[in-house]
Amino acid sequence: MADKFDVIFIGSGPGGYVGAIRAAQLGLKTACVEKWISKDGSKPVYGGTCLNVGCIPSKALLEASHKFVEAKHDFDDLGIQAGDVTMDVKKMMARKDKIVSNLTGGIAGLFKANGVTPIQGTGKVIGSKQVEVTDKDGKATTYEADNIVVAAGSVPVEIPPTPLVEGMVVDSTGALEFQETPKRLGVIGAGIIGLELGSVWNRLGSEVTVLEAMDSFLPMVDGAIAKETQKLLKKQGLDIQLGARVTGSEVKGEEVVVKYTDGKGDQEKTFDKLIVCVGRRPYTKGVVDDGVGVNLDERGFIHVDDHCLTSVPGVYAIGDCVRGQMLAHKASEEGIMVADIIAGHKAEMNYDAIPSVIYTFPEVAWVGMNEEEAKAAGIKVKTGAFPFAASGRAMANNATDGQAKIIADAETDRVLGMHIVGQHAGEMIAQGVIALEFGSSAEDLALTCYAHPTMSEAVHEAALAVEGHAIHMANRKKKK
Predict the structure, then answer these.
(1) 346 among the known binding-site residues?
(2) Looking at residue 476, what is its pLDDT?
(3) Which positions are annotated as binding NAD(+) (predicted)?
(4) Residue 65 CB contacts under 8 Å (≥ 6 apart), including other chains
(5) What is the pTM assigned to this prediction?
């Protein structure tokens, strides 16, 4: 029998590595198991999907491609003469890879600094206090732990009509590895991942068609914000087709022929590359032995309570492999909560105050309820919105697209949700998160002094607009 630990985390993604560091900081003897290994087989790779093939590399490409578009099309408005601007895709990709390498290597340093024991291999819960780890050579070692935290994450969903074909029909991971810009790019799925990846390659010159089976666009976002976002992305060149159900695909030479049905009947479109972005599924198969007694639902999610405890005492699960939004920051906060609980502290997590961000340009960010959800729940609401077109800082930034919107309870004035489409929306949404965490009223935000000139003043004005008191736009409500 190998070493015994107070807690072992299976998976070193944003849930596992953050939770492991927190547990070690709290004085627990902690280990973190990771199966991912470098291409040369020399060392484990930490950070999970987020750092390696998700959040971080995609943001590197989004930022680079946005700067390219700015230099090519927008600098002239600012008086900057940039000349003929070109993009070196291979160099952009190399920069992305370097960022990923720096961050994943940084986790190894954090483990060492905080006393977390890294264990390379594939982890499997074989008992309420036992984890079996099989290394790259097939050798299995059993470790004991008083507590086990499954943080195995998720993987892209594959669909029968579009089987993956290396280099031609790819998932989100493959879309981060293109070495040249495809002339015609198909994207299946108009969710967060599809819109971000579609935006990257659209900016670099691809003719991008997004096929979305649902009839509504971004249904989780407030209706007004979603409608404006769709309009802005269409203006940028994304061809977003709703109600388009893909029925098949075929690789013919250097092309991919996709068949789908929409309101007009059967359709067919040819692309040079096809990205399948129809969601993610929990990676739980084989992570927990059937005899342990941990319950999973029909989709593979592990059943947990509000504190991420499974049906087996001492066995927890966090992140993408349990209920809730598949978001890196949600996983991290769950990891911290579980570490605190194992260490004997009181810990809670507010699942109603988890922000979401789409890193297109402009960004789309939201937290809490949207207006449609609140009304469907029978809540009387009042709303306030403010366009960035009326913001001095937005004008100075050449970023006047979008708006900020606040949804509040009509009777109590409590903030129920905040939805923003605009430059830096992902940064500004933290104000909505804090408002929800502290049970703030719209008046609390309206009475807050914001720095001028800032993009965040749009949130201030939206809060003022809830009662018809916005300063920098015509008000439709009578002042009280």
Answers:
(1) no
(2) 60
(3) 189-196, 212, 279
(4) 87, 92, 199, 200, 201, 203, 204
(5) 0.96
Secondary structure of residue 422 in the 3-state scheme: strand
pLDDT given at position 53: 96
Q: Which among 66, 307, 452, 469 is annotated as catalytic? A: 452
Q: Same topology for domains 4-156+281-349 and 169-278, yes or no?
A: yes
What is the pLDDT, as a whole number, of residue 441? 98
Could you tell me the CATH superfamily of domain 353-465? FAD/NAD-linked reductase, C-terminal dimerisation domain (3.30.390.30)
**Tokens standing for 68?**
């390219």
Identify the segments of the chain with pLDDT beneath 70: 1-2, 475-480
Are residues 85 and 68 in contact, defined by beta-carbon separation less than 8 angstroms? yes
142-164: b or e for each residue (b if 16 or more CB lie within 10 Å)? ebebebbbbbbbbebeeeeebeb
Task: Tell whether 226 is in a known binding site.
Answer: no
Cα 478 from Cα 415, distance rounded (Å): 21
**Cis ω on the peptide bond leading into residue 355 (within 30° of 0)?**
no
Identify the CA nearest to 167 among candidates 182, 156, 187, 183: 182
C-alpha dist (Å) from residue 45 to 104, 108, 122, 134, 208: 6, 9, 13, 16, 33
> Is 190 labelled as part of a ligand binding site?
yes
Is 472 marked active-site? no
